[in-house]
Amino acid sequence: MSLGTDTPTDPQLSSADLAERVRQLDDADLARVDAWWRANNYLTVGQIYLQANPLLREPLRADHIKPRLLGHWGTSPGLSFLYAHLSRLIRITGQEAIYLAGPGHGGPALVAAGWLEGTYSEIYPRVGQDETGLHRLFRQFSAPGGIPSHVSVTTPGSIHEGGELGYVLVHAFGAVMDNPDLLALAVVGDGEAETGPLEGAWKGISFLNPARDGAVLPVLHLNGAKISGPTVLARKDPAEVRDLFSGHGYDVIEVEGSDLPGMHYGFAEALATAWASIRRIQESARNGSWDGSRPRWPMIVLRTPKGWTGPEVVDGTQVAGTYRAHQVPLSGVKDNPDHLAQLERWMRSYRPDELFDADGVPNADVQAANPRGDLRMSASPHANGGRLTRDLDLPDFRQYAIDVTSPAGSRAESTRKLGELMRDIYSRNPDRFRLFSPDETNSNRLGAVFEVSDRAWGEGVLPSDVSLSRDGRVMEVLSEHNCHGWLEGYTLTGRHGLFATYEAFAMVSASQTIQHSKWLEEANHLSWRAEVPSLNVLLTSTAWRNDHNGFSHQGPGLIQTVLTQRGDVSRIYLPPDANCLLSVADHCFRSRSYVNLIVIDKQPQLQYLTIDEAIEHCTRGASIWQWAGNDDGTSDPDIVLACAGDVVTMETVAAAQILTERLPHFRTRVVNVVDLMTLPRHKDHPHGMEATLFRELFTDHVDVVFTFHGFPGAIHQVVHGRPDADRFHVRGFIEEGTTTTPFDMTVKNKASRYHLVIDALNNARRTPPGASELRAWCEAQLDKHTEYVVEHLEDMPEVRDWVLPARA
Questions:
Q1: Of 383, 415, 447, which closes a domain?
Q2: Whether residue 408 is found in the same domain as residue 379
Q3: Cα separations (Å) of 796 from 781, 782, 783?
Q4: Domain Xylulose 5-phosphate/Fructose 6-phosphate phosphoketolase C-terminal: where (predicted)?
Q5: Are 132 and 245 contained in the same domain?
Q6: 446 in the Ramachandran plot: left (φ > 0), alpha (ψ -120 to 50) or beta?
Q7: 3-state SS, residue 218
C-alpha cells in the first residue's frame, strides 16, 4: 500500500512507526501533496483575480478580471503548503487537528482548502465541486454579496479569523485545554510576531498539561516582509531567532528554501519530527512515566519567499520575496496587456489541466491528498464547537444564597459567593469548565475554586507556593490578552468558562471582546455553525471602589464597548448584590453564543434581596423596589430614582431614604435595573422591555434621575426612542477620580446620595415644602464630607456605616 492511504490508521502501528511513515515521502504521495498544493495556489489566485473563465478554457481577457482586485497573495502559498502537509500527516496517523491561520488575510488559501476537501460544497451547495461552483467560488471572494478576504466565520474549519493580528497562539492554546486528542497547528506570521499579544502568547506551554491537554504546534512562518517593509524576525540572524524561542522553552525545528521537490521532503521530515516529539511527550505523561517537569514542546520555523511561486519580477521590479507580493502583485491586469499575459502565465504554471477534469472536478491525486470525513480540517467538529458542546452540570445556585432578613441591612462580599458556586462547577465538570484570570482570582474573592483545583502551572514549583501545580485547572497569567484569548479558544471548541478581571484593565483586551462579538454575530447567520458556550466576562475591582489605586484603575469603558455590539449577541448585567449575582451567573453559564458582561465589585457591599426576590428581579431585568421608596403605586410619583450598578444602587437607596424621612409627602419611586439591555425598545434589543412595562416602571412623563455605574451617555443611548427620553437625567462616572475614599468617588462624580437628592428636588413635578431646607442640608453635608476625609482619611460614619433601617 502506498504511503498516505492508511485511513483509518492501523491500530497496531506505534506513534514512532507512524512518524516514520510521515517522514518518508514516497513518489506517489509526493505527487498527491504537490498536486493538492498547486491546485490550492491556483484557486487562491483565481479568487483574487477572476470573475469568469475559472478554468482558463479560453485565453484570458480583461473582462474575465474582477473590477476591483482585493486579497492577499504573499502569505497564501505558505499557508497552503502547510495545510497540504498537515493533511498528509492526518491521513497517515489519524490525528485530530485544526488549523489556525495567524495571517488570516491569507483567506483565499483556506477557502480553497475547504473547497478541495469537499466541505465547502457540503455547507454551501451552490458552490459545488465543478466548473459552475468554481466560477461562484471565484466571484464571491471579497466581493459584494460574497465573503470576506480573511479566514472569517464563513470559512469552514476556522475558529480564528486572523484579521486582527496577535491572537493565533492564545486561541490555539485555549482550544487544546482539556482536549487531549487535539492538535492545533498555529501559523504565526512574521508580521504578527511583532505584536504585543503574540509576544506574550508563547508562554502558553508553561500552562499545558500533556496528560490532560492536547498540543499546539506553532509554525513561525518567516517570509520576510509585511505590507510595506521587512519584518524584525525575518531580518534577525537565524541563530538569534533560534535562541529566542529556545529560551521560551521550545525545541526549534527549522526548514528553509523554495526549491521543489526539496521543500516537500524537508517539511515532511520536520513535521514528522515535531509530531513524534508531541506523541512522546503525551504518551510519557499518560502512561505514568512523566517526571512532571515542563516538556520542551516542538515548534517549526519555516522560511519561504513571500509570494512563493508567484511573479518574480513585474515591470522590471523584484516582487517575489519582497513586500510587493503582500497583496495583489499584478495590479494592472484589467488595463495592462502585459500584466494580463503575465497573470495567465502565472495561473497556467500550476497546470490546471492536470488538476481538474473537463467538468472542473479535482482529479484523483488532489482528492486522494485529503483526509476523510471529520478528519478533514475544514470539517473538524472542534472547529464548529457547538457540535461537541455538552451542558454544564450545574449545582442549584440557590444553595449559595445569602440570607437577607432586611433589605440594605447587612454587608457581604458578593463575588465570594460566585467563587463558591464555581468551586462546585469545577468539581462537577472536570473536563469542560475553567476560570481565566490575570493573577486576580483571590483578589476578586473567587478563591474558593482553589479548594478543588490548583492554578495550572508547568514550570518549577517551590515549597512556598500555594495552590500551584501541574494538575491545576485555574488559569492565571498576568496578561488579559492570554486569558481572554484562551477562553475564546476554549468556548469556540465547545467548553465553558469565565474571564474575570479588574474593570479598568478589561480595556486591555477590549478589541478581543469586539472581535469575538463580531464572530458570534456573523455565526448567527450561518445555519451550519452550531451555537457555542457564551463568552462570560466578570468585571470587578470596579471604578467606584478602586479608591486606593487611583485614577489609572478607574474606568468602566468595557460597558460602552459591549453596548455597541449587535443586540443578538451583547448582554450586560449589573447585579446589585450576591443573590442577584448568583442568578445572573447561572443564566450566563447556561447560555449560548452571547458575550455576557457581568459587573459587580468585590468589596463588602449592602445586600438587598432574598434569593427568591433576586430570581424574580433578574428574570424581569428591572423592578420597582417598593421597600426603598414611598410610592404606593396608586398614582404617578413625584420623581423616579433609577439605578444600575452596586455602588450607585446604594447611593440611590440612601437618597430615597433621605427624601422619605425628610419629605414624607414627596412621592419617591426607586427602580433598580440589573439587565441593562431591558432599557432599549424591544425592536432595538431582544431583551428590551415592552412599552407597557417601561411605562409601569418609569411612567411616560415623570422625570427620572438615573444613577449608572458607567458613563452617563450609555443610558441616554439605550433609552433613545422611549417616551420623552429627555426626562432622563443621568449621573455616572465622568472621569473624575483619584486615590481617595469610596464615598468621595461618588462625590467627585456628582453621583452621591446628596447630589441625587438635590437632583430629585430640582427635577420633580412639584416643589414640596421644605425643599429649600433639604437642598441646603445636602450641600452642607457635602462640605462636611470634604473637610472630614482630609482630616480623618476615611468617610464620615453616617456614610461609611450606613444601612437602611428595618421597617416595621
A1: 383
A2: no
A3: 10, 11, 12
A4: 602-803
A5: yes
A6: alpha
A7: strand
153, amino acid identity: V
Domain assignment of residue 745, given as a range: 640-800
φ, ψ (nearest 5 deg) of residue 25? -80, 105
Is the Cβ–Cβ distance between 349 and 309 less than 8 Å?
yes
Indicate whether 547 pLDDT > 90.
Answer: no
379 and 423 inside one domain: no
Q: Do residues 636 and 735 touch, judged by C-beta distance below 8 A?
A: no
Residue 477 near residue 463 (C-beta atoms within 8 A): no
pLDDT reading at 77 higher than 80: yes
Do 358 and 468 lie in one domain? The reply is no
Instruction: List strand residue ranges (DSSP E) for 354-476, in order.
Output: 411-413, 433-437, 455-456, 468-469, 475-476
Burial letters 235-258, b for 16+ CB under 10 A, else e: eeeeeebbeebeebbbbbbbbeee
Residue 310 CA to residue 330 CA, distance in Å, equals 10
Closest CA to 581 of 670, 491, 675: 675
Q: What mean pLDDT is predicted for residues 143-152?
A: 93
Report the number of distinct structural domains present in the chain: 3
Q: In terms of Cα–Cα distance, which of 251, 226, 232 is closest to 102? A: 226
Domain presence at residue 389: no
Residue 249 is predicted with a pLDDT of 97
Cα–Cα distance measured from residue 159 to residue 470, given in angstroms and rounded to the nearest whole number: 27
Separation CA 320–CA 643 (nearest Å):
61
Residue spans of alpha helices (H) in 534-573: 557-563
Rounded CA separation 490/311 (Å): 40
The number of beta carbons lying within 10 Å of the beta carbon of residue 210 is: 23
pLDDT at 3 over 50: no
205 and 86 together in one domain: yes
Give the 3-state secondary structure of residue 311. Answer: coil
179 touches 497 (CB < 8 A): no
pLDDT at 2: 29
Return all residues near 381 (Cβ < 8 A) that are at least 6 apart.
374, 387, 388
Least-confidence region, from 131-135, 389-393, 765-769: 765-769
Q: Terminus-to-terminus CA distance in the chain, angstroms? A: 88
Start-end of H helices in 369-509: 414-428, 480-492
- My answer on whether 672 and 544 are in the same domain is no
Q: Are 90 and 102 in contact (CB under 8 A)?
A: no
Give the rounded distance of the alpha carbon of 770 from its chain centre.
54
Task: Tell me how far apart the alpha carbons of residues 76 and 119 are, in angstroms, rounded to a whole number.
Answer: 19
Q: What is the mean pLDDT of residues 89-113?
A: 96
Distance CA 99, CA 162 (A): 12
pLDDT level of residue 635 (50, 70, 90 thresholds)? confident
- Over the Cα atoms of the chain, what is R_g? 30
